[in-house]
Amino acid sequence: MKIGQNIKLLRKRLGKSQEEVATIFGLTRSSYSGYENGVADPGIDTLIQVSDYFKIPLDTLMRKDFNEFTATEWESIDKGLYADIQGKNIRILTQMVNNDDEDLIEMIPAKARAGYATGYADPEYLKILPTFSLPFLSKNRKYRSFPIVGDSMPPVVEGSYVVAEFIQNWMTIKNGTPCIVVTQDEGIVFKIVYNNLMESQSLQLCSTNPMYQPYTVHANDVFEMWKFVNYISPELPDVRMDDTQLGKSISELQKEVHELKNMLLKEK
Fold first, then answer.
1. Is 54 exposed, middle or buried (CB count within 10 Å of its CB: 0-12, 13-18, 19+)?
2. What angle do CA 209, 211, 214 make, to 5 degrees?
3. Average pLDDT, stretch 76-92?
4. Distance between terminal CA atoms of the chain?
5. pLDDT tens digits, residue range 18-70?
6. What are the residues whose beta carbons fall under 8 Å from the beta carbon of 18, sequence distance 6 or more?
7. pLDDT at 177
8. In principle, which of 61, 112, 180, 182 could form an S-S bond with 224, CB 3.0–4.6 Å?
């Protein structure tokens, strides 16, 4: 494990002494010093404390060598941001293909929706999903279909399926883009996204239904981003005319009725 050298670098970056950090973790200075020097390994409870204090995931803390971090990576750590928002590291994306080695669109059934946040990169989870293809979509991009639950995004109703395109670099997301966002806490959500990654390392998620309040998710809590392409719905959207259209339709109807009356009068 790299944890000893890693927590030493993190402590020094914060300008803390071993005594100060040991006190925060409820340890003696000698015990904490042993962890930094690799004489002893911290237990799971201490590891969780260290992870929470430095705002670094356990997996990153234990597996990566912080001595190899670039200035940009350290800047992200200082901001509390460890997600690869620019997609510089290729995101692992398990995908299904047909006999001609062409990508298929995996459809996440409603029953499998709850498990997607943990199974999205698991081949065993994905290979049992139904798949289909849409010939008018680009062959150079990756698509997946997600089930919609609730009434927060009309005209896309519950029971619909959104087909979306995988986003590698989240920084490219333009404000007002409808996206499927896969989050740690909520799983699959379909929202209008406003990109605040540069300013606050977060995304604002909004609904088209005004009854639902916008909310913010931190980039660290996001697993995947998919841009809306189209949707498949069991219902025809409700089409309503505005006042101008309605007035025009009534005028045209009145004109037709008037012409019909004239025709009947002439026949008499």
1. buried
2. 80
3. 61
4. 101
5. 999 999 999 999 999 999 888 888 888 888 888 888 877 777 788 788 888 87
6. 11, 29, 32, 33, 36
7. 97
8. 182
Given a contact cutoff of 8 angstroms between Cβ atoms, the answer to whether 185 and 221 are in contact is yes
235 token code pair: 């219902």
Q: Under a CB-based contact definition with an 8 Å cutoff, are residues 163 and 134 in contact?
A: yes
3-state secondary structure the chain: CCHHHHHHHHHHHHCCCHHHHHHHCCCCHHHHHHHHCCCCCCCHHHHHHHHHHHCCCHHHHHHCCHHHCCHHHHHHHHCCCCCCCCCCCCCCCCCCECCCCCECEEECCHHHHHHHHHHCCCHHHHCCCCEECCCCCCCCCCEEEEECCCCCCCCCCCCCEEEEEECCCHHHCCCCEEEEEEECCCEEEEEEEEEEHHHHCEEEEECCCCCCCCEEEEHHHEEEEEEEEEEECCCCCCCCCCHHHHHHHHHHHHHHHHHHHHHHHHHC
- Give Cβ neighbours of residue 137 (< 8 Å, ≥ 6 apart): 105, 143, 163, 229
Contact 114, 187 (CB under 8 A): yes
The rounded distance, in Å, linking the Cα atoms of 87 and 169 is: 5
Distances (CA, A) of 240 to 2, 228, 251: 62, 24, 17
Nearest to 230 by CA among 149, 156, 154, 126: 156
- Read off the pLDDT of residues 141-192 as tens digits, 9 standing for 90 and up: 999 999 999 999 999 999 999 999 999 899 999 999 999 999 988 899 999 9
pLDDT in tens, 211-228: 999 999 988 888 899 999
